[in-house]
Design brief:
CATH topology of the largest domain: Rossmann fold
Distance between the termini: 34 Å
Number of strands: 11
Number of helices: 11
Radius of gyration: 19 Å
Order of helices and strands: EEEEHEEHEHHHHEHEHEEHHH
Number of domains: 2
Shape: globular
Amino acid sequence: MSKYILETQHLTKEFRGFVAVDDVSLQVERDSIHALIGPNGAGKTTCFNLLTKFLEPSSGKIFFDGSEITSEQPAQIARRGIIRSFQISAVFPQLTVLENVRVGLQRAMGMSYHFWRSDRMLTALNSRAHELLEEVDLGGFSNEITVNLPYGRKRALEIATTLSMEPKLMLLDEPTQGMGHEDVARVTQLIKKVSAGRTILMVEHNMNVVSSIADKITVLARGSVLAEGTYQEVSRNAQVMEAYMGTTAGELEGAH
Protein backbone atom coordinates (compact mmCIF):
# COMPACT_ATOMS: atom_id res chain seq x y z
CA MET A 1 0.00 0.00 0.00
CA SER A 2 1.38 3.39 -1.04
CA LYS A 3 1.88 5.95 1.71
CA TYR A 4 0.04 8.40 -0.55
CA ILE A 5 -3.75 8.13 -0.63
CA LEU A 6 -4.09 10.72 -3.42
CA GLU A 7 -1.69 11.57 -6.26
CA THR A 8 -2.00 13.77 -9.31
CA GLN A 9 0.43 13.68 -12.21
CA HIS A 10 0.79 16.77 -14.41
CA LEU A 11 -2.82 17.81 -13.80
CA THR A 12 -3.82 20.62 -16.16
CA LYS A 13 -7.06 22.49 -16.85
CA GLU A 14 -7.48 25.05 -19.63
CA PHE A 15 -10.51 27.26 -20.26
CA ARG A 16 -10.41 28.63 -23.81
CA GLY A 17 -6.70 29.28 -23.70
CA PHE A 18 -6.55 30.32 -20.02
CA VAL A 19 -4.60 27.77 -17.97
CA ALA A 20 -6.26 27.63 -14.54
CA VAL A 21 -4.32 24.59 -13.30
CA ASP A 22 -0.90 24.09 -14.84
CA ASP A 23 1.01 20.80 -14.56
CA VAL A 24 0.17 20.18 -10.89
CA SER A 25 1.59 17.02 -9.32
CA LEU A 26 0.32 16.47 -5.77
CA GLN A 27 1.06 13.72 -3.26
CA VAL A 28 -1.21 13.56 -0.20
CA GLU A 29 -0.03 11.23 2.58
CA ARG A 30 -2.47 9.00 4.43
CA ASP A 31 -3.60 10.16 7.89
CA SER A 32 -2.34 13.70 7.39
CA ILE A 33 -3.69 17.24 7.02
CA HIS A 34 -2.51 18.68 3.70
CA ALA A 35 -3.27 22.35 2.98
CA LEU A 36 -3.57 23.92 -0.46
CA ILE A 37 -2.90 27.66 -0.23
CA GLY A 38 -2.22 30.54 -2.57
CA PRO A 39 -3.43 34.00 -3.59
CA ASN A 40 -6.87 34.53 -5.12
CA GLY A 41 -6.99 33.05 -8.60
CA ALA A 42 -4.19 30.58 -7.88
CA GLY A 43 -6.29 27.59 -9.00
CA LYS A 44 -7.08 26.03 -5.60
CA THR A 45 -10.83 25.55 -6.05
CA THR A 46 -10.35 24.46 -9.67
CA CYS A 47 -8.01 21.76 -8.32
CA PHE A 48 -10.75 20.59 -5.94
CA ASN A 49 -13.24 20.54 -8.83
CA LEU A 50 -10.85 18.37 -10.85
CA LEU A 51 -10.28 15.94 -7.97
CA THR A 52 -14.04 15.47 -7.46
CA LYS A 53 -14.66 15.45 -11.24
CA PHE A 54 -16.95 18.48 -11.20
CA LEU A 55 -14.52 19.46 -13.97
CA GLU A 56 -12.71 17.25 -16.46
CA PRO A 57 -8.93 17.76 -16.65
CA SER A 58 -7.49 18.89 -19.98
CA SER A 59 -4.57 16.54 -19.34
CA GLY A 60 -2.86 14.65 -16.53
CA LYS A 61 -3.87 11.79 -14.26
CA ILE A 62 -5.47 11.34 -10.82
CA PHE A 63 -4.84 8.31 -8.58
CA PHE A 64 -6.71 7.47 -5.38
CA ASP A 65 -5.90 4.61 -3.03
CA GLY A 66 -3.82 2.89 -5.70
CA SER A 67 -6.35 3.17 -8.56
CA GLU A 68 -6.50 5.66 -11.42
CA ILE A 69 -9.74 7.64 -11.20
CA THR A 70 -9.13 10.23 -13.95
CA SER A 71 -12.06 9.08 -16.10
CA GLU A 72 -14.56 8.41 -13.29
CA GLN A 73 -17.76 10.37 -12.64
CA PRO A 74 -18.50 12.40 -9.47
CA ALA A 75 -20.79 9.70 -8.01
CA GLN A 76 -18.08 7.05 -8.49
CA ILE A 77 -15.53 9.34 -6.82
CA ALA A 78 -17.84 9.83 -3.83
CA ARG A 79 -18.42 6.08 -3.52
CA ARG A 80 -14.66 5.58 -3.31
CA GLY A 81 -14.68 7.75 -0.18
CA ILE A 82 -13.62 11.18 -1.45
CA ILE A 83 -16.14 13.46 0.29
CA ARG A 84 -16.11 17.23 -0.14
CA SER A 85 -17.51 20.12 1.84
CA PHE A 86 -18.05 23.43 0.10
CA GLN A 87 -17.27 27.08 0.86
CA ILE A 88 -20.96 27.72 1.51
CA SER A 89 -22.49 25.71 4.33
CA ALA A 90 -24.44 22.83 2.78
CA VAL A 91 -26.96 21.63 5.35
CA PHE A 92 -30.77 21.37 5.36
CA PRO A 93 -31.86 24.47 7.33
CA GLN A 94 -35.35 23.29 8.32
CA LEU A 95 -34.26 19.86 9.60
CA THR A 96 -32.92 19.35 13.11
CA VAL A 97 -29.20 18.89 13.65
CA LEU A 98 -29.78 15.18 14.30
CA GLU A 99 -31.90 14.78 11.15
CA ASN A 100 -29.15 16.35 9.03
CA VAL A 101 -26.65 13.74 10.20
CA ARG A 102 -29.19 10.95 9.66
CA VAL A 103 -29.50 12.03 6.00
CA GLY A 104 -25.77 11.47 5.60
CA LEU A 105 -25.99 8.12 7.36
CA GLN A 106 -28.81 6.99 5.06
CA ARG A 107 -26.55 7.66 2.10
CA ALA A 108 -23.62 5.80 3.65
CA MET A 109 -25.81 2.77 4.36
CA GLY A 110 -27.19 2.65 0.83
CA MET A 111 -30.63 3.80 2.00
CA SER A 112 -30.55 6.95 -0.15
CA TYR A 113 -32.43 10.12 0.84
CA HIS A 114 -35.82 8.58 1.68
CA PHE A 115 -37.48 11.18 3.87
CA TRP A 116 -40.67 9.12 3.91
CA ARG A 117 -39.07 6.17 5.73
CA SER A 118 -40.72 5.20 9.00
CA ASP A 119 -39.53 6.78 12.22
CA ARG A 120 -38.62 3.31 13.50
CA MET A 121 -36.17 2.73 10.64
CA LEU A 122 -34.60 6.17 11.02
CA THR A 123 -34.41 5.86 14.81
CA ALA A 124 -32.02 2.96 14.28
CA LEU A 125 -29.54 5.54 12.96
CA ASN A 126 -29.80 7.76 16.05
CA SER A 127 -27.04 6.09 18.06
CA ARG A 128 -24.40 6.64 15.36
CA ALA A 129 -25.74 10.13 14.65
CA HIS A 130 -25.35 11.08 18.33
CA GLU A 131 -21.78 9.72 18.31
CA LEU A 132 -20.90 11.92 15.34
CA LEU A 133 -22.48 14.97 16.97
CA GLU A 134 -20.44 14.37 20.12
CA GLU A 135 -17.31 14.09 17.97
CA VAL A 136 -17.87 17.61 16.59
CA ASP A 137 -19.02 19.07 19.95
CA LEU A 138 -22.67 19.36 18.93
CA GLY A 139 -24.05 16.81 21.39
CA GLY A 140 -26.18 19.43 23.11
CA PHE A 141 -27.69 20.72 19.84
CA SER A 142 -29.24 17.53 18.42
CA ASN A 143 -32.87 18.76 18.56
CA GLU A 144 -32.10 22.31 17.43
CA ILE A 145 -33.51 23.39 14.06
CA THR A 146 -30.41 23.90 11.93
CA VAL A 147 -31.35 27.38 10.69
CA ASN A 148 -31.04 28.59 14.31
CA LEU A 149 -27.42 27.48 14.70
CA PRO A 150 -24.62 30.07 14.77
CA TYR A 151 -22.51 30.03 11.59
CA GLY A 152 -19.53 28.24 13.15
CA ARG A 153 -21.79 25.51 14.54
CA LYS A 154 -23.30 25.03 11.07
CA ARG A 155 -19.83 24.36 9.72
CA ALA A 156 -19.28 21.85 12.54
CA LEU A 157 -22.54 20.17 11.50
CA GLU A 158 -21.34 20.05 7.92
CA ILE A 159 -18.20 18.27 9.10
CA ALA A 160 -20.39 15.79 11.02
CA THR A 161 -22.48 15.05 7.91
CA THR A 162 -19.25 14.63 5.92
CA LEU A 163 -17.99 12.18 8.56
CA SER A 164 -21.30 10.29 8.39
CA MET A 165 -20.40 9.25 4.84
CA GLU A 166 -17.26 7.54 6.18
CA PRO A 167 -14.75 9.42 4.02
CA LYS A 168 -11.30 8.06 3.28
CA LEU A 169 -10.36 11.56 2.16
CA MET A 170 -12.11 14.73 3.32
CA LEU A 171 -11.82 17.76 1.04
CA LEU A 172 -12.55 20.93 3.01
CA ASP A 173 -12.99 24.09 0.93
CA GLU A 174 -12.37 27.22 3.04
CA PRO A 175 -13.75 25.68 6.27
CA THR A 176 -13.25 28.88 8.33
CA GLN A 177 -14.34 31.43 5.72
CA GLY A 178 -16.52 34.22 7.11
CA MET A 179 -16.03 33.25 10.77
CA GLY A 180 -15.19 35.36 13.76
CA HIS A 181 -12.08 34.62 15.79
CA GLU A 182 -13.83 32.38 18.34
CA ASP A 183 -15.48 30.24 15.66
CA VAL A 184 -12.21 29.99 13.71
CA ALA A 185 -10.43 28.66 16.79
CA ARG A 186 -13.23 26.16 17.52
CA VAL A 187 -13.42 24.82 13.95
CA THR A 188 -9.61 24.64 13.67
CA GLN A 189 -9.45 22.44 16.76
CA LEU A 190 -12.39 20.43 15.46
CA ILE A 191 -10.59 19.70 12.17
CA LYS A 192 -7.51 18.63 14.11
CA LYS A 193 -9.64 16.39 16.33
CA VAL A 194 -11.50 14.62 13.49
CA SER A 195 -8.28 14.16 11.48
CA ALA A 196 -7.22 11.30 13.79
CA GLY A 197 -7.11 8.22 11.56
CA ARG A 198 -8.35 10.22 8.56
CA THR A 199 -6.83 12.18 5.68
CA ILE A 200 -7.80 15.80 5.07
CA LEU A 201 -6.99 18.00 2.08
CA MET A 202 -8.07 21.57 2.71
CA VAL A 203 -8.10 24.89 0.88
CA GLU A 204 -7.68 27.64 3.45
CA HIS A 205 -6.82 31.36 3.38
CA ASN A 206 -6.30 31.83 7.11
CA MET A 207 -2.59 31.31 7.74
CA ASN A 208 -3.08 30.95 11.49
CA VAL A 209 -5.26 27.91 10.77
CA VAL A 210 -2.78 26.46 8.29
CA SER A 211 0.25 27.02 10.52
CA SER A 212 -1.39 25.35 13.52
CA ILE A 213 -2.73 22.12 11.99
CA ALA A 214 -1.30 21.40 8.51
CA ASP A 215 1.34 18.67 8.26
CA LYS A 216 2.25 19.65 4.70
CA ILE A 217 1.44 22.67 2.55
CA THR A 218 1.34 23.07 -1.22
CA VAL A 219 1.43 26.68 -2.44
CA LEU A 220 -0.20 27.42 -5.79
CA ALA A 221 0.32 30.58 -7.82
CA ARG A 222 -1.12 31.18 -11.29
CA GLY A 223 -2.18 27.57 -11.42
CA SER A 224 1.26 26.08 -10.76
CA VAL A 225 2.96 24.62 -7.68
CA LEU A 226 5.20 27.36 -6.31
CA ALA A 227 6.47 25.63 -3.16
CA GLU A 228 5.78 22.67 -0.92
CA GLY A 229 6.76 21.63 2.57
CA THR A 230 6.00 22.40 6.20
CA TYR A 231 4.65 25.79 7.23
CA GLN A 232 8.10 26.84 8.43
CA GLU A 233 9.61 25.91 5.06
CA VAL A 234 7.06 27.60 2.79
CA SER A 235 6.69 30.73 4.97
CA ARG A 236 10.42 31.47 4.50
CA ASN A 237 10.33 30.91 0.73
CA ALA A 238 11.07 34.18 -1.09
CA GLN A 239 8.87 33.26 -4.08
CA VAL A 240 5.95 32.55 -1.77
CA MET A 241 6.36 35.90 -0.03
CA GLU A 242 6.44 37.66 -3.39
CA ALA A 243 3.33 35.83 -4.62
CA TYR A 244 1.35 36.87 -1.54
CA MET A 245 2.65 40.46 -1.35
CA GLY A 246 1.52 43.14 1.10
CA THR A 247 -0.72 42.21 3.99
CA THR A 248 -0.85 38.49 3.24
CA ALA A 249 2.92 38.31 3.13
CA GLY A 250 2.97 39.89 6.59
CA GLU A 251 0.39 37.34 7.65
CA LEU A 252 2.67 34.55 6.45
CA GLU A 253 5.62 35.96 8.40
CA GLY A 254 3.73 36.62 11.59
CA ALA A 255 1.24 33.78 11.84
CA HIS A 256 1.55 31.01 14.34
